[in-house]
Amino acid sequence: MRDRLLDQMIVLKKKFLRYRNYAGATLDDIFTKEQRKGEEVLSANNLASMVFYNNQGKSFTGKQLPVSAQISCIRGIVTGQDINKDGFSDVITAGNFYGTEVLLGRYDSSVGNVFLNDGKGNLKTVTPSMSGFNANGDVRHIAKVKTNNGDCILIVRNNDKASLVKMKEQVN
After folding, report:
1. Among 75, 82, 130, 161, which lies 20 to 30 A Cα-Cα from 136?
2. Tell me: the pLDDT tens digits for 104-131?
3. Same domain, residue pair 37 and 56
4. In a domain, 172, yes or no
5. Maximum C-alpha span of the chain
C-alpha cells in the first residue's frame, strides 16, 4: 500500500514517484540499512481466534474456535454460560468492525456465534435460528445480564442502541 506508506513517511516520496518502482521493491529497497538499524523482527505463528482452557491453574490449552468465528473480528466474548444445561461452559462471541479505511473495507461478516462445549473442549457451532442469538452490526461488547426473565446477552454496538437477547431454551 504505497500511498499509505508515503503518507506516513514523506521522505520516501522522491524514491517512489511511480507505482511500478514500488511494486517490486523489497524491504531492503525501501529502507536503508541505517534506517533499519535497531529494528526488531517479530513473527506470529497463529492468527486464528482461539479459546484457552485453564488446566487446574498449572497451564493452559489453546484451541482454535470453529470456522464461523474466523470470518470477522471478535470484539466481545461471554464464557461460563451453560446454554444447553449440560453442565459445561459454552462460548458466545460477537464482533465486526466498521472503522477500517475505505481501501480495506469493513469487517462485517459476523452475526455472532454460539458454541456448545461437549465437555472435552470441542465446540459445536449453533446456528442463529437454533440459538436465537443474532448480533449483527458493529458490535463492541457483549455481556451476560441477569433479568427477571432469566439470563440474557447484552449487545453493545458502536453508534447504535444496545439490545438484550434471550437465548432459546432448547439449544442443542
Report:
1. 82
2. 889 999 999 999 999 988 999 999 989 8
3. no
4. no
5. 66
